[in-house]
Automatic annotation (TrEMBL), chains A, B:
This is Oxidoreductase. Coiled coil: none annotated. SUPFAM superfamilies: Glyceraldehyde-3-phosphate dehydrogenase-like, C-terminal domain (SSF55347), NAD(P)-binding Rossmann-fold domains (SSF51735). PANTHER family: GENOME ASSEMBLY, CHROMOSOME: A09 (PTHR46368:SF11), PTHR46368. Pfam families: GFO_IDH_MocA, GFO_IDH_MocA_C3.
Length: 352, 352
């Protein structure tokens, strides 16, 4: 049951990711599952709500439209195909709903900026649904990378996220369809790797982005695997690699002048209750474990609901930090895509 | 003391690497330290021989020339600057000496091929001094990567070798001097990373090599840090990164369709007596430890002496496997250098 201090969140559809995020909302002390909008049948949504422990008060909406107009909903989680994000995020913002939008947020940054405008105009909180950024481990990683004594200055970072999709996924998943999630592996797996390289560079944008030779596209031109190089000043570089065609691998290797960070499961930790990473200085390696009382998706919901609560209950302004790093990620996704489309030509970020 | 079955190896100079390799020769049951050639004073060489447990029979030569003419020497280890390799390797081969040559073997592949010709003409065994290839762990890694059931088909491999050189190194080491080891970090650290990507691809040469934007050169134009992309058919890629400017890091991450391999200390294992690596399939990670009774540099000497023994005692032909992968590595080092020199233009390997 909700209480007045809980942010009332509405979700859309009955997919696996909604199952996961619904559980996360249930676990978050400052949020409650207020409603679900079905994209198919009311019966399915009812059954989904029951089997996923929605409070009995949770409403079942027969359309997204009805959900975003519900006065008893503070915020909406959007796990819908990317091509539908702009329309629905903007419509939700117009109704004063705070928005949690799955990555990739948009098909390109100009679409993204329509969401930015709506959030600014209607003073609503934005967050993209990248869960690993909210794992307590991520703060520890940031602290290590920011420490001039143990890590020094960043020199290079390599991040990859790959998984071997099955035949059905490669034929039918929305992530391989031009009309739905047209950014393919780049918008999906690549989004995480780009955020990891941004994090390692304290969210400073690189100067240039160059797609690496050898991207694999499907017949519809959707990226199934690709790599890219990001360049900052003074020889600081990052390489990313994302793929639907290779065994599950989720790496960050960040190398500074004095220290090295290694993470092997940065996107989804191998264990839900603890997450590890390795730091080293010269030949001295240290393993670190970070306990996570709540799964990282709950940490995300808690932070999102906290920010919404500040606005709703204390008249605060939205916090644009999450929007800012999300938009930077979109910029870089766009740049990799542009470089792929332009025969691997480097894209200067100052052009944006 | 040597015996008839031991291959008599001569070494040159009194540097740290010679100290290490001399110990390795002492530990190898099929090799003996037969001689040392000084590049400075006889006294220093005598003292070096004593403190490094050379047998009392070991000869002290006042020049490399005298060493390569010594009839009681079967093979010579060359830890001299790269710019001197061709001349001395060829002169040693002419005298029928088998040669163990430190990496990078030559300043370019046409120099390398003078060594190849001499080895073929005089029927002498060649090996480059890359020690990690002889660590028992490397065979285990190869077996995992070659296993279609657990690893599948290679999709991508990332390898980096970096260390933070001090000010003195960056000013005075032969590896930053155009006249001596003009290939800089690429010929030194990069050599290892390129061999790692070749190993992951069963020593098949890539189709193209492209240097990545952002190489760092010193005032004399020597590479201090750089990266490159290697492309095989069907979207198989590798990225390498080598640097004298970043914390010690020695990674291989190889991702196949079914499995992933991770090695964190591939060049010089953190421990001399055991070496570890990690394999994973989906979310199931396994740590493996390989015991190494002898240090990897001894394994190298044992293999080299075994091959020399086959020729010396059984009339066998030289084994060209090590020469072949060494030459491929030189080809790829050259290609990265050419790409850096040509504004990062891709280099087609079929051009060679």
């Amino acid at each position: 049951m909700g209480n007045d201090n809980q942010i009332r969140i509405g979700v859309i559809s009955c997919t696996n990711i909604v199952r996961k995020v619904s559980r996360a909302i249930n676990l978050a002390p400052n949020a409650t599952l207020a409603a679900i909008a079905t994209t198919s049948s009311i019966e399915e949504a009812k059954s989904f709500a029951t089997s996923n422990n929605f409070p009995p008060t949770a409403k079942i909406h027969s359309s997204i439209e009805s959900l975003v107009e519900d006065p008893d909903v503070d915020a909406v989680y959007f796990p819908i195909p990317t091509s539908l994000h702009v329309e629905w995020a903007v419509r939700a913002a117009e109704k004063g709903k705070h928005i949690l939008v799955d990555k990739p947020v948009a098909l390109n940054v100009s679409e993204f900026d329509q969401i930015v405008s709506a959030c600014e105009l209607y003073c609503v909180q934005f967050m993209d649904g990248t869960q690993w950024l909210h794992n307590p481990r991520t703060d520890k990683i940031k602290a290590f990378i920011s420490d001039p004594l143990s890590f020094g200055q960043i020199q290079t970072v390599h991040s990859c996220f790959t998984f071997a999709a099955n035949e059905n996924f490669l034929k039918n998943d929305i992530r391989v369809k031009p009309g739905l999630d047209g950014l393919g592996a780049l918008g999906d797996a690549g989004w995480y790797t780009i955020q990891a390289t941004l994090l390692a560079n304290n969210f400073k944008l690189p100067k240039t982005v160059t797609a690496l030779p050898g991207p694999v596209l499907n017949d519809a031109g959707i990226v199934l695997s690709c790599g890219a190089l990001l360049n900052w000043e003074e020889g600081v570089t990052a390489t990313i690699y994302c793929s639907f065609l290779a065994n599950l691998t989720m790496e960050i290797t960040a190398i500074g002048t004095k220290g090295t960070l290694r993470v092997h499961d940065f996107v989804i930790p191998f264990q839900e209750t603890e997450a590890s990473y390795t730091t080293s200085t010269r030949r001295c390696l240290s393993e670190h474990k970070v306990m996570t009382e709540l799964p990282q998706e709950s940490c995300m919901v808690i932070e999102f609901a906290r920010l919404v609560g500040e606005i709703k209950n204390r008249g605060a302004k939205p916090d644009w930090f999450w929007l800012s790093i999300s938009r930077k990620t979109q910029l870089l996704v766009d740049a990799v895509k542009e470089s792929i489309d332009n025969n691997l030509k480097p894209v200067l970020l100052s052009d944006w």
